[in-house]
Amino acid sequence: MNCLFKDSGIDDFLKDASNFRGSCDGVFFPENHDDVVSIITEANELKSKITVAGNGTGLTGGRVPLSGKVISLSKLNSLLEIDKVNMTVTASAGIILKDLQEFCESNGFFFAPDPTETLCQAGAVVATNASGAKSYKYGATRNSVQELDVVLPCGDTLTIKRGEIFANGNVMQFNSASGKKYLFPLLDIQMPNVKNSAGYYSKPGMDLIDLFIGQEGTLGIITKCKFTIHPVPETLFSCLAFFDDVADSLSFIEYFKSEENTSLSPRALEFFDGNALRFLSEDYPLCAGDYASGVWFDEECTNAGFDKLTDEYISVLNKFNCHDDNIIPAFDSKTHLLIKEFRHAISYKINEFVASKGLRKLGTDTAVPSEYFTSFYFSCQNGAEKSGLNHVSYGHFGDSHLHLNFIPENDSQFELGKSLYREICKLAVEMRGTVSAEHGIGKTKTDYLEIMYGEQGMKEFAKLKKVLDPNLILNFGNIVPEKFFTI
Ligand SMILES: Cc1cc2nc3c(=O)[nH]c(=O)nc-3n(C[C@H](O)[C@H](O)[C@H](O)COP(=O)(O)OP(=O)(O)OC[C@H]3O[C@@H](n4cnc5c(N)ncnc54)[C@H](O)[C@@H]3O)c2cc1C
Fold it and tell me: In the chain, at which end, N or C, are there fewer CB atoms within 10 A of the end residue's CB?
């Protein structure tokens, strides 16, 4: 097994896409599950820290080591297998999402979780419970996970199949492959009823597999994943629409959430504010114009039903004052691709811009219950306007999920953006929402997790971590900062 040591090219592993930086003594590159087991077993015996690295596209410093060694899963990529009858795909944890998606598509299927960044690894997508545009219809990664192979922090292993092991009320019990018994109470926390990737999953009677989804590598290393997949639809209706009034675009999105309006069933409902459209207009002249906002959406359909669906959507758009001239339906593959690229470009462009200034990204990842979303959105936007900071908003508004990105030009603006960010998190929590709907907590958002669950909740997280990782070796610093292990 390959291993790099300090001063021999480990620099890439000291950061992720958040620009948070750390340090470590070396990087292991295991090639199979057994390699992972032996690295972890030894580290646990020596009580030395191990940080798990996916492909470093994370936005919260989750894979950034604070000390000890890194275990990169990039060489754990030998397995990619489809079962067309049961509609599942099985992948080694280090398989790149883009490869997994292309593999499924070449077999006539698709993998629903579609984070904008496709260079991430399958295991990391599970570890962060990532989601994307299609989550509006298909839910976050959690909904697609059928089975996981996990190496626990003591080196013990576990294959968990969905539907096999449930908590008995608030008590979880399972045996690892070696027969070691784990028995512990679930967390005394109330998770928000929104799309959520903040902290550990905990619900009475929960399925054990859900504990290992979104745990950000703190409870175990995922080495293999089996996911549900879906047949590729006959065709897709995809459309970009621009509005002169933001309120109309929000009402258009809300329209689909009403139980009465079920004849249309979008798969994705994505929003861009006027600043986002202007930010993109140089590269994408299709959104140049003095629009207040834009919405991109798509729906799976049949060729026979395409025209009817188009007419229905246009009529709903008209109802919300979006006129025909402002509607760009994708009638050909070129427009389809252009719209898709446009939709993905915004987060890349913002990251690029912020990195070019040598600053850290300040992008919220908040979601609130649908009934509060309009009020939440306008409060956040008004605060951002008043601050005078440059800002750009977009997000998965079908899931009431807002990415408000401050674009600070200097350190003092960065500090101001940070305090506003905190206020936005507080508001999301007051509205019974989450501080992280998809990116996770990592090391950079632990303060926000504390806003959500308080000191008591953080101590609960620490207690659970200690049950599975008594020596605190694995991904230390993610989700629960050190101080909660000592108080
Ligand atoms: C431009 C851009 C757009 C993005 N868009 C989205 C989006 O739309 N939706 C979204 O959800 N995210 C998005 N992200 C964030 C990121 O892509 C996801 O969080 C992704 O899941 C990280 O994958 P990675 O392989 O890069 O993991 P890393 O950044 O390397 O690691 C992420 C976390 O997972 C842990 N981890 C990695 N592999 C394993 C494993 N096998 N077992 C246990 N723990 C593990 C790491 O320790 C770390 O805590 C975006 C990022 C960028 C840069």
Answer: C
